[in-house]
Design brief:
Layout lengths: L1 E6 L5 H9 L2 E7 L6 E6 H11 L4 E6 L2 E12 L6 E8 L6 E10 L8 E4 L3 E6 L8 E4 L8 E3 L10 E2 L6 E6 L22 H6 L1
Parallel strand pairs: 1-4, 2-6, 7-10
Antiparallel strand pairs: 1-3, 2-3, 4-5, 5-6, 7-9, 8-13, 9-12, 11-13
Length: 204
């Protein structure tokens, strides 16, 4: 998958705002041993890559006739509207060993009828080359009962993918529902203690 990019000639807040109004996103592309490049990419093309490949997408960026393979390092997006403020890309080569956070996805969660499925880790860290980065890890919780636990070591690592997260880290467990305390009524309230000497004072 290729994404066309152009060199960014002007920087600053006003230039970034103008670029976004034109449907482009300001980009910083980092390369080992080289200066960071300031680029502009098309917003729709970047959104398509995210939808198809996810946040760990590896793709090619075409800049002035040159092609560079990149990985999404970070992006900043508006919380209340569909707008990207900026994107950071990391230039990579085919044999680079990368450490990447991979999402954990639960499967058959609805089959657990007793207890609550508790996902302890939403992502795990792995090390691999760009071509072997998994899109996600599926964890099947079918048949799990209260007290059952699955660990990071239970994940099936594809070939050429190494788990970096501690293998003994709890990944998902089934826990008992928390019982809410019963509301007390006026009848259950403790009676106020009688004040010693009060009756004697009133009987006089």
């Amino acid at each position: 998958m290729n994404l066309k990019a152009e060199l960014r000639t002007t920087t600053g807040t006003s230039a970034s705002r103008k670029a976004r109004q034109e449907g482009k996103i300001p980009v910083a592309m980092y390369s080992k041993g080289e200066e960071t490049q300031s680029l502009l990419i098309d917003r729709r093309e970047f959104e398509n890559i995210l939808k198809k490949e996810g946040v760990n997408a590896v793709f090619n960026v075409d800049i002035d006739g040159k092609t560079q393979q990149v990985l999404i390092k970070n992006f900043v997006k508006a919380s209340l509207k569909d707008e990207f403020y900026s994107v950071d890309l990391q230039a990579v080569s085919a044999d680079d060993k990368l450490q990447v956070e991979i999402p954990v996805v639960l499967v058959n969660e609805e089959t657990v009828k007793v207890g609550i499925v508790d996902l302890s880790l939403s992502t795990v860290l792995v090390e691999t080359t760009p071509a072997n980065i998994p899109s996600s890890f599926e964890v099947d919780v079918k048949g799990m009962e209260i007290g059952d636990v699955k660990y990071a070591s239970d994940l099936e690592m594809p070939a050429n993918v190494e788990l970096v997260t501690d293998a003994e880290e709890s990944l998902v467990s089934v826990v008992a529902p928390t019982e809410e305390p019963e509301e007390t009524t006026g009848e259950d309230e403790v009676a106020e203690p009688e004040v010693i000497g009060e009756k004697e004072a009133t009987e006089e």
